[in-house]
Amino acid sequence: MDPTDERPGGDRSRRPEAAQDSAEPTRGEINPERSQGYLDGQMLIAMPVMDDERFARSVIYVCAHSAEGAMGIIVNRPARAIDFSELLVQLEIIDKADQIKLPETAETMKVMKGGPVETGRGFVLHSSDFFIKNATLPIDEGICLTATLDILKAIASGKGPSRALLALGYAGWAPGQLENEIQSNGWLHCPADPDLIFGADSEDKYPRALRKIGIDLGMLSNEAGHA
Predict the structure, then answer these.
(1) DSSP E strands, 30-109
(2) Which of 7, 76, 154, 226 could disulfide-link 59, Cβ–Cβ 3.0 to 4.6 Å?
(3) SS3 for 190?
(4) Rounded distance between C-alpha atoms, residue 15 and residue 28, angstroms
């Protein structure tokens, strides 16, 4: 999402036709390659020994994964210097005087550092109760991705999804790169759930993700340090 209102991977000349469209794909249509071992719709968890500062202790929701590569959004790294309401003003979605009139969903909207790629663009991860034809990408049951200004306008007017976060930038992998990093013990993975994606406590997401696969962070860190 940027002022030109482009959507990722799509025809830049096409604009969304309608919000909350009823023709949302079913789960089988969303992940036809899941049976081949791809991780779209799951969470990546950085190993404690991850030495890349861009991804240390990060939890990433995988939006797309195929033989052509992978793309995901970091969900536990807040962009603390950026306020969502101020961003709406900068994008001329609302007037500055209207900041006090924003609905609660907009006032509490989290802005995350989604990853090191295209940090000037915004990507909204959100619940599937909001859908824009030709713009919203269904990822897994209950979770979608939209990268147009239209979703920010909907959120600002109180007509957006019930749960959402705005990510600036994303994490990307070339063909085979993510698989190699996983084999090199760079990443663990676990099932996703809405609270892990949209929960308010960003600091707790990393240990929570590890606990989902039965790993205690303190024990894992100690073992890694004595390897």
Answers:
(1) 42-46, 59-66, 69-74
(2) 76
(3) strand
(4) 26
Give the whole-angstrom CA distance, residue 40 versus residue 71: 9
Is pTM beyond 0.90? Reply is no
Side chain identity, residue 109 = M
DSSP state of 26: P
User: What residues form DSSP beta bridges with 189?
Assistant: 44
C-beta neighbour count of 135 within 10 angstroms: 25
pLDDT single digits (tens) 38-61: 999 999 999 988 889 999 999 999
Question: Which letter does DSSP use for residue 217 in this model?
Answer: H
C-beta separation of 94 from 156 below 8 A: yes
**Does residue 227 have a pLDDT over 50?**
no
- Alpha-carbon distance of 52 to 21, in angstroms, equals 40
CB 85, CB 107: distance < 8 Å: yes
Cα separation, 81 vs 42, in Å, equals 28
∠ CA 46-51-52, nearest 5°, is 80
Angle between helices 217-225 and 202-212 (to 10 degrees): 80
Q: Where are the beta strands (DSSP E) in the chain?
A: 42-46, 59-66, 69-74, 110-113, 117-127, 136-140, 143-146, 164-173, 187-191
Q: Which two tokens stand for residue 61?
A: 């929701």
> Residues 144, 150, 156, 157: is their CA dihedral positive or negative?
negative
